[in-house]
């Protein structure tokens, strides 16, 4: 059975960096990928766009292909979006299918701050997406936790349904939602940093546009 990869984030807004790394991860792992927007991310400020607006942008971005899909379960749950709760649900639904949690290298370095982080390895593999401008240093406790978990051949993932860590060397794209929000707020139109569908409806990007 193809692994199922989960790619969480605020997607405020979804950008070409997200889509490209998710697409490449699906190729490297031969996996289906679900993008999972968080409602209340526990580690960061409240998103600028509402949950409904972020979902509308994701739907527009994902049109025209079927390998990357949308999973809105975290938006339907009350309270903070803890990844551990999401993985417990998915494991119950997916049985022994390999699950792969995709995390950008910047976010991965902060893993020890996540709720019940060590238990994540009982439920899923972790795929670390390379990201330009991110220093390689990881906290000691994280390095110790993953030292014996690293695998490099994608095939190894097929033998177990959880517990390994793999580095996914994806094409570096120095795009961030923070930068895109800054550009839109200053009146710029970052057309080719964002999926084309986001420009089909003027309303989609209105949460970020300057009111001047
Ligand atoms: P912000 O600038 O608001 O922090 P972001 O661009 O990092 O946003 P998020 O929605 O926070 O986007 O990211 C979701 C996931 O995507 C995280 O794991 C993050 O590390 C990863 N990610 C985002 N952009 C890239 C990129 N250009 N290359 C690799 N990983 C990325």
Report what the structure shows.
The chain has eight helices and six strands; from the N terminus they run βαβαβααβααβαβα. With 212 residues, the protein is α/β, with parallel strands linked by helices. The radius of gyration is 17 Å and the shape is globular. The protein has a six-stranded parallel β-sheet with strand order 3-2-1-4-5-6, with helices on both faces. The protein starts with a strand and ends in a 27-residue tail after the last helix. The mean pLDDT is 93. It has one domain: Rossmann fold (3-Layer(aba) Sandwich), CATH 3.40.50. Adenosine-5'-triphosphate is lined by residues 9-12, 17-18, 21, 103-104, 106-107, 129, 131, 173, 175-178.
Quick overview of this protein structure:
The chain is an alpha/beta fold. The chain is built from eight helices and six strands.
SSE pattern: EHEHEHHEHHEHEH
Annotated CATH topology:
Rossmann fold
Radius of gyration: 17 Å
Helix percentage range = 25-40%
Mean pLDDT, rounded to whole units? 93
Second-tier CATH architecture:
3-Layer(aba) Sandwich
Describe the main β-sheet briefly: 6 strands, parallel
Number of beta-strand segments: 6
Tally of individual helices: 8
Tags for this model:
binds adenosine-5'-triphosphate; alpha/beta; 6-stranded parallel β-sheet; globular; 31% helix; Rossmann fold; 212 residues
Can you lay out the helices and strands and say which pair or pack?
Elements lengths: L3 E6 L6 H14 L2 E6 L13 H12 L5 E3 L2 H4 L6 H12 L4 E6 H4 L11 H4 L1 E5 L10 H7 L18 E4 L8 H9 L27
Parallel strand pairs: 1-2, 1-4, 2-3, 4-5, 5-6
């Amino acid at each position: 059975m193809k692994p199922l990869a989960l790619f969480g984030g605020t997607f405020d807004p979804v950008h070409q960096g997200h889509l490209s790394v998710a697409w490449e991860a699906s190729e490297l792992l031969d996996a289906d990928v679900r993008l999972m927007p968080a409602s209340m991310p526990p580690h960061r400020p409240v998103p600028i766009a509402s949950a409904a607006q972020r979902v509308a942008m994701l739907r527009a971005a994902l049109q025209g292909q079927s390998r990357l899909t949308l999973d809105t379960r975290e938006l339907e749950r009350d309270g903070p979006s803890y990844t551990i709760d999401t993985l417990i649900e998915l494991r119950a639904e997916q049985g022994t299918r390999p699950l792969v949690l995709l995390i950008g290298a910047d976010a991965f370095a902060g893993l020890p701050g996540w709720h019940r982080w060590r238990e994540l390895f009982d439920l899923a593999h972790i795929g670390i997406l390379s990201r330009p401008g991110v220093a390689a240093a990881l906290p000691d406790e994280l390095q110790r936790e993953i030292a014996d978990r690293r695998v490099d051949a994608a095939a190894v993932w097929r033998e177990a349904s959880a517990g390994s860590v793999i580095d996914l060397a994806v094409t570096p794209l120095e795009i961030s939602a923070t930068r895109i929000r800054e550009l839109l707020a200053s009146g710029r139109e970052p057309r080719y940093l964002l999926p084309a569908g986001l420009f089909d409806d003027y309303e989609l990007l209105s949460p970020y546009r300057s009111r001047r």
